[in-house]
Design a protein that fits this description.
globular, 10% helix, 3 helices, 3 domains, 349 residues, mainly beta, Methylamine Dehydrogenase, Chain H, 4-stranded antiparallel β-sheet, Thrombin, subunit H
Length: 349
């Protein structure tokens, strides 16, 4: 796992008990930027460890341990201390609840799920720590379940999708959005009983800034013709925001320039950058944004960083905290960097 506290200029690896281990998932506390939980998978099972310094180092004690494979961990925003995890084996799935961020071994409560299910946490409701949304992974499609009582009972709210889910959002007004890469968007409005389904871009992620109504979505550059879209009509339509072909170059801070300049020509060729306008997307250092500059569209920066690095997850902790990514040692150091697009300046979300 890597972390950045200097606006994506450097991504040093976390150390301690997490070193050289397979990290299945991680989550920084939204109420405490110094605290991070991480799931580690081993040949015989999995366990959970914690960091108390913002992810720089992870402690040795196993806060929670199981012979199953831990698939997710998340900490509630509305009530400090409440945290959840999911795991599965060949015969069953399990939902795990803790009232103290798993810091007291042995007191977490486990709730069995249906046999032969693979549960993953979609989200803990930001306004209700007892409400948790789960994705139940199927062979060719998924379903969504929710608990309203911290795991004691579950109900299915989306029985089956036509393809595996790629993204999920619980919007600020309480509307639920779930999407697939095949171009379907499932929407359940507040107080509605069922989801409706509609055509949409081939969404790979969904997100929304707290306190706003606009919905952002990662799209398929080849199929949809752009890389980031936005909806101002509750998901009915998405409008183009930017394309990866508009990248101007690596951020201009020294670590990124040193590590990434040699890769920039290849990236331009892969994405077709500069084919329309020879004056745009050049390989000179001036093409990017300065890593210490503020302002702008943080969503674009982090979505681009996730795309270039091919990571599964990029998470920003509390407002003053660092950003985190899962990392693989064999990736080149350039893949720990970020790139900028026209009209934006990279900064931490």
């Amino acid at each position: 796992m890597t972390r950045s506290s200097d606006v994506a200029c450097t991504w040093p690896s976390s150390t301690g008990s997490i070193t050289d281990q397979l990290v299945a998932d991680f989550f920084p506390d939204p109420n405490d930027a110094t605290f991070v939980l991480a799931n580690i998978v081993t040949p015989t099972g999995s366990y959970m460890v914690a960091s108390h310094d913002g992810g720089k180092t992870f402690d040795a004690p196993h806060l929670y341990e199981t012979q199953q494979i831990l698939t997710g961990v998340e900490i509630a925003r509305s009530k400090p201390g409440v945290a959840y995890a999911t795991s599965f084996s060949s015969s069953s799935g399990t939902f795990v609840a803790s009232s103290d961020r798993f810091t007291t071994p042995g007191i977490a409560k486990t709730f069995p799920l249906d046999p032969a299910t693979e549960p993953r946490i979609l989200a803990v409701d930001p306004d209700d720590e007892k409400k948790v949304y789960l994705r139940i992974v199927g062979a060719v499609s998924d379903s969504i379940r929710v608990t309203l009582d911290g795991g004691q009972t579950f109900q299915t709210i989306l029985d089956s999708t036509e393809a595996p889910l790629s993204s999920f959002l619980r919007a600020s007004d309480g509307t639920l959005y779930a999407a697939t890469r095949s171009g379907k968007l499932y929407i359940r409005k507040p107080n509605a009983i069922a989801f409706t389904v509609q055509d949409a871009p081939h969404l790979r992620c969904l997100g929304q800034r707290p306190g706003t109504t606009r919905i952002y979505g990662c799209t398929d550059l080849v199929v949809d013709g752009y890389s980031l879209g936005a909806s101002d009509d509750n998901g009915a339509t998405f409008q183009r925001v930017m394309s990866f072909r508009e990248l101007l170059g690596p951020l201009t801070c020294t670590p990124v320039q040193t590590n990434c300049q040699a890769h920039w020509e290849r990236i331009q060729g892969v994405l077709g950058i500069g084919t329309r306008d020879a004056g745009q997307g050049g390989s000179t250092p001036s093409g990017g944004s300065h890593c210490a500059s503020a302002g702008a569209d943080a969503w674009s920066l982090w979505l681009l960083a996730a795309f270039i690095s091919r990571r599964r997850r990029v998470i920003t902790s509390a407002a003053t905290g660092p950003s985190f990514r899962r990392s693989r040692a064999q990736r080149s150091s350039c893949h720990q960097a970020a790139f900028a697009r026209p009209g934006t300046r990279g900064h931490r979300a």
